[in-house]
Amino acid sequence: MSSLRTEGLTKSFGGVLAVNGVTVELRDGAINGLIGPNGSGKTTFFNIVTGLIRPDSGRVLYRDREITRHSPHRIAHAGIGRTFQLCRVFPRLTVLENMLVAVRRTRLRELMAGLRDAGETERARHWLRRMGIEHLEEAEARDLSYGQQKLLELAAVLMAEPDLVLLDEPAGGVNPALIDRITGLVRDLNAEGRTFLVVEHNMDMVMGMCDHVIVFDRGAPIAEGPPAEVREDPRVLEAYLGV
Ligand SMILES: Nc1ncnc2c1ncn2[C@@H]1O[C@H](COP(=O)(O)OP(=O)(O)OP(=O)(O)O)[C@@H](O)[C@H]1O
């Protein structure tokens, strides 16, 4: 059984068919890559799976239960975490506050009043250490570099202990040293049992990190398989090169 699968997902914006009948299954326990030319529907697919966009038709199933059209909060609660293409953190909260808000958005006022749960603070520090940014816990998020903000965003996602993590362009706007660090972290987190789905334009990262790659073109999957196979697939070359 695949933990996440979709059946015939379709979404159009006006006249643009962004996602066109997508039926895919993720490999459980793997680092799955999702690649494709600009505008091929990858982010829209992510947004449908995580409840930010409602599909026109089709279904999303997680652990054989339908989660189509569930709220983002409910989907996160079911065990699916995600990061965003343009990293999302609360700029005026400290690093530690960002971590705590991630698990208790509804109790923001208490948090701001200084009522911190010791267990959660410890867990937050654990993830910050794993990301290598524990020394920044009292810094405001807006004072972090973009790469550090990406690490914070991932750490905050992990506070909810997701089994499946969707990463939208983790290498985007990040320097090569940090790309290596993020790659290493994803591998470690995967080795601990988390499944990943990674949208990424950096082919070195995709080819070096992913076990299984799905390729979208014009809103639908055109190929999938191990990175080395996908890279040689004529349909994939055609989609990218337009030949
Ligand atoms: N909110 C929207 N309103 C109108 N059109 C949209 C919207 N979101 C996406 N689209 C269109 O849907 C298509 C798929 O876009 P999407 O962002 O999902 O592709 P992508 O593969 O993630 O692209 P990229 O690699 O550039 O991020 C594109 O033609 C895009 O212009």
From TrEMBL:
Q: Which Pfam families match?
A: ABC_tran, BCA_ABC_TP_C
Q: Name one GO molecular function term.
A: ATP binding
Give TM segment ranges.
none
Which InterPro entries does the annotation name? AAA+_ATPase (IPR003593), ABC_AA/LPS_Transport (IPR051120), ABC_transporter-like_ATP-bd (IPR003439), ABC_transporter-like_CS (IPR017871), BCA_ABC_TP_C (IPR032823), P-loop_NTPase (IPR027417)
Keyword vocabulary terms for this entry = ATP-binding, Nucleotide-binding, Transport
Gene3D superfamilies according to UniProt: P-loop containing nucleotide triphosphate hydrolases
List, alphabetically, the SMART domains matched: AAA (SM00382)
Question: Can you give the residue ranges of the ABC transporter domain?
Answer: 4-243
Concerning PANTHER family, the annotation shows: CONSERVED COMPONENT OF ABC TRANSPORTER FOR NATURAL AMINO ACIDS, CONSERVED COMPONENT OF ABC TRANSPORTER FOR NATURAL AMINO ACIDS-RELATED
Q: Any idea what this protein is called?
A: ABC transporter ATP-binding protein
| Protein's organism | Nonomuraea maheshkhaliensis
